[in-house]
Write a structure and sequence with these properties.
heterodimer; A: mainly alpha; Ferritin; 10 helices; 67% helix; globular; B: alpha/beta; GMP Synthetase, Chain A, domain 3; 2 domains; four-stranded mixed sheet; 24% helix; binds zinc ion; PaaD-like (chain B); FSCA_dom_sf (chain B)
Chain lengths: 255, 153
């Protein structure tokens, strides 16, 4: 039997872990992007995500009340304690796949943060107000890049279509709702992800059409979700070995 | 014991350069939200520019160091997220100094109004991101120089 934890703590972990794992993934491009401008853009996007991570996880630690800092939560948990969706832990693939994943997540993130600006929890509302500005800027860029690649050369079109085919089913997990989401929505703390789905679909499908891409007919195929930790891909463990090794090998080290 | 006035503390803060863009000060940037006294503790409220800005902890350290040099002993730094920082809070002096430094100041239109080097309005965007989280890269099509643009948020 697992102990049932505070739904607000769980919900904050979901917000923090999505930003943390995606931020770490995107940071893997540092020094490897196709051109310097993209390298800098990806690194800055990752930086914003890691900043948002620390705000979410810091609050998660306070809500939990066991004295854990954002660093403790990020670096000293194992894979089954992570609450991120599978979309963000998938390997980067090629540049197109990285940008497509970013776009599908960015739109969700912006809609979610915009809605949280009126959260009944003032701390969550404050973090959302700050992060929403950054997310809006991320969408501007990832959307433009998806359209540029889709409506670009034969090769860029083929590659970004392949990326969409791989990622579209994973993006559907963002809208899976469970009892944590229901409780948070009922209390007016965080919106029900399902309530964002129509707006997400309208915006994303519009941009994909402009990018001359075809949306595949596909559903989220996994039996469990990363949101409650019952399901993660093999890739998460590999991320953690890289991300956590320093704190694991030298506990308590600081810069 | 009498402590320095808040105006005096503001004046001191106004001399601390931003660690990433030393041409402007922390007050030019508009990130100092409040200065006050809680008993004999000087409380400075700071808002971050970007949530992941690596300069945030350095900025706090610089504030503390500067105030200590002016003889303050008890200093508390508070973080305030809301209202979220906007480039509207940048001072006129700060905008002018940015331009002299070669960085186009933020504009409500979302892009620089002119090249900070030659003044030409014939400019184009290279990338939405630049050398720090707060800047984007642009280029002048007349003098052909690339330049930083301070993003408007
Ligand atoms: Zn010029």
């Amino acid at each position: 039997m697992t102990q049932k934890s505070d739904p607000k703590f769980e919900a904050l972990l979901r917000l923090g872990d999505n930003a943390l794992i995606l931020g770490h993934r995107v940071s893997e491009w540092c020094g490897h992007a196709p051109v310097l401008e993209e390298d800098i853009a990806l690194a800055n996007t990752a930086l914003d995500l890691l900043g948002q991570t620390s705000l979410w996880l810091e609050y998660a630690g306070e809500v939990e009340g066991k004295g854990r800092s954002a660093d403790d939560i990020a670096f000293l948990r194992d894979a089954w304690d992570f609450r991120n969706v599978l979309l963000v832990e998938l390997p980067n693939g090629d540049f197109g796949q990285t940008i497509m994943r970013q776009y599908l997540f960015d739109v969700f993130n912006r809609l979610n943060l915009e809605a949280m600006k009126t959260s009944t929890d003032t701390r969550i509302a404050e973090i959302a107000e700050k992060a929403a500005k950054e997310a809006a800027y991320h969408v501007e860029r990832s959307e433009g890049t998806v359209i540029g690649l889709g409506d670009g050369t034969e090769e860029s079109h083929r590659r970004i279509q392949d990326a969409l085919n791989i990622l579209w089913p994973y993006a559907q997990e963002l809208f899976i709702t469970d009892e944590v989401d229901e409780e948070m929505a009922k209390a007016g703390v965080i919106p029900d992800p399902k309530s964002l789905q129509d707006a997400w679909n309208a915006e994303v499908r519009g941009a994909l059409a402009e990018a001359t891409l075809e949306v595949p007919e596909a559903h989220f195929g996994h039996r469990g979700s990363g949101k409650d930790g019952r399901m993660h891909t093999e890739h998460l463990g590999h991320i953690l070995t890289q991300m956590q090794w320093l704190q694991r090998a030298y506990p308590g080290q600081e810069w | 014991m009498a402590h320095p006035s808040t105006e005096q503390v503001w004046d001191w803060l106004d001399t601390i350069p931003d660690p990433e863009i030393p041409a402007i000060t922390l007050t030019d940037l508009g990130i100092i939200r409040n200065v006050g006294w809680d008993g004999d503790t000087c409380v400075v409220t700071v808002t971050p520019t970007y949530s992941g800005c690596p300069a945030t902890s350095l900025i706090n350290m610089e504030i503390e160091t500067a105030l200590r040099e002016h003889g303050l002993e008890k200093i508390e730094l508070k973080r305030q997220l809301s209202p979220a920082w906007t480039t509207d809070w940048m001072s006129e002096r700060g905008r002018r100094k940015l331009e002299e430094y070669g960085i186009a100041p933020p504009q409500p239109a979302g892009g620089p109004d002119k090249c900070p080097h030659c003044g030409s309005t014939n400019v184009e965007k290279l990338s939405q991101f630049g050398s720090t989280p707060c800047k984007a890269q642009w280029r002048c099509k007349d003098c052909l120089e690339p330049f930083d643009y301070f993003k408007c948020i």
